[in-house]
Amino acid sequence: TFRIFDLDPAIFRVTHLAFLEYVHPDDKELVNKAFTDSINSDMHEHSIEHRIITGTGHRKIIEERWKIVRNENGEPIKAVGSCQDISQRKEREEQLKLLESVIVNANDAVLITEAEPIEEPGPRIIYVNEAFSKMTGYSAAELTGKTPRILQGLKSDRTELDKLKRAMQRREPCEITIINYKKSGEE
To answer: How far, in Å, CA of 141 to CA of 135, rounded?
Structure first.
């Protein structure tokens, strides 16, 4: 906890009020309520995610877990807990949400497959966006679990597909031009 909060353990005394001094001002009420509610709760374990401002002024997001230790009369005598810095995880989650939003709302058709198997029958489709469905006439449910071969037909260029296959085997980027077919059979 001292490392997460950038505090000197020889100086900082761990109490709820001292801890609250480092909770982000916008989260103090929420954190204090969660702690107060836990004292009055029958639940054994408690947790909350919130922001802090460390002793050196850095902002972090932490996950705090604790339990209330009670005496034989059920009265709270202390809280025992731990904190985990989840700032990087939260940042990655936000980046993924942004990327998801871009893909879902894109006007360009997007199809995503598994990376493997490259050999027959090929990687399965795991996602298509709405623009892809509008372009091809296939719903996401119709394509999920199938291979992109469902889109190929007589004029699909085998040379271009082999080029794509080799690039996938080498895990290299690749751009090809190929004729695929809509659900209606139209090129």
So the answer is: 15
Q: For the chain, 187 residues long, give each residue's pLDDT as a single digit of tens.
A: 678 888 877 777 777 788 888 999 999 999 999 998 998 888 888 999 999 998 889 999 999 999 999 999 988 888 888 889 999 999 999 999 988 888 888 888 999 998 888 777 889 999 999 999 999 999 999 999 999 999 999 999 999 999 988 998 899 999 999 999 999 999 9
CA distances to 4, 83, 153, 158, 187 from 177, rounded to whole Å, are 51, 52, 14, 11, 13
Q: pTM to 2 decimals?
A: 0.60
Q: Say which residues have a Cβ less than 8 Å from residue 177's Cβ, sequence separation at least 6.
A: 157, 160
Distance CA 124, CA 115 (A): 8
Name the token pair of 81: 């807990």
- Asked whether 134 and 127 are in contact (CB, 8 A), the reply is no
CB 69 within 8 A of CB 77: yes
Contact yes or no for 15/1 (Cβ under 8 A) = no
Residue entry with tokens 């985990």:
84
Give the CA count within 13 Å in the CB-facing half-sphere of 88.
3
3-state helix, strand, coil in the chain (%, to 5): 35, 20, 45
